[in-house]
Write a structure and sequence with these properties.
With 137 residues, the chain is α+β, with helices and mostly antiparallel strands. It has one domain: Nucleoside Triphosphate Pyrophosphohydrolase. The protein has 2 helices and 8 strands. The strands form 2 sheets. Strands 1, 4, 5, 6 and 7 form a 5-stranded mixed sheet that branches. A hairpin with a 4-residue loop joins strand 6 and strand 7. The longest helix has 13 residues. Bound molecules: 8-OXO-2'-deoxyguanosine-5'-triphosphate. 8-OXO-2'-deoxyguanosine-5'-triphosphate binds next to strand 1, strand 4 and strand 7. Belongs to the Nudix hydrolase family.
Length: 137
């Protein structure tokens, strides 16, 4: 299993109200669809370190605080395809995120009410529902 770590980049770790969605540019099959910024955890990396690295590469974030994991109903992450597992962590930053390495071409900050205003990756459906519940508390 390859772990993909994603950020629920939010406004407040203790009382999250918003999430930053990012629009992919590639591969063609996924281009234009929205996701949680992040990427594959590498050998020897903790999920938190992988997420910090990905957020720096993709969005130019240098000062990120990573909080609790957003867990699925069964306590794990979410399968995204046959070989990948998506794990999500809350994160906050004072930096201004901006697409940086070409992997995204738009960012949008959403609250629970407008979570469906972007076209999320099909594979993210269950994770998006968990985030909706989190932002609705
Ligand atoms: N980052 C991210 N990837 C997701 C999400 N949902 C989902 O199915 N994926 C898939 C898309 C990709 O097949 C894989 C992550 O790939 P990626 O391209 O973001 O990872 P990476 O930055 O490590 O890329 P690379 O070096 O392998 O090119 O997980 C999501 O919400 N966020």
């Amino acid at each position: 299993m390859i772990t993909v770590v994603g950020a629920v980049l939010t406004d407040d770790l203790d009382r999250p109200r918003t999430v930053l969605a990012a629009r992919r540019t590639r591969p063609p099959a996924l281009a234009g669809r929205w996701e949680f910024p992040g990427g594959k955890q590498e050998e020897g990396e903790t999920p938190q370190a992988a997420l910090a690295r990905e957020l720096a590469e993709e969005l130019g974030l240098t000062a990120v605080r990573i909080g609790a994991e957003v867990v699925a109903a069964d306590g794990g992450g979410w399968p995204i395809g046959p070989r990948h597992l998506l794990r999500l962590f809350l994160a906050v930053t004072d930096d201004q995120p901006a697409p940086r390495d070409g992997s995204h071409d738009a960012l949008r900050r959403l609250d629970a009410a407008d979570l469906d205003s972007v076209d999320w990756l099909d594979s993210d459906a269950a994770a998006v529902e968990a985030v909706r519940r989190l932002l609705s508390v």
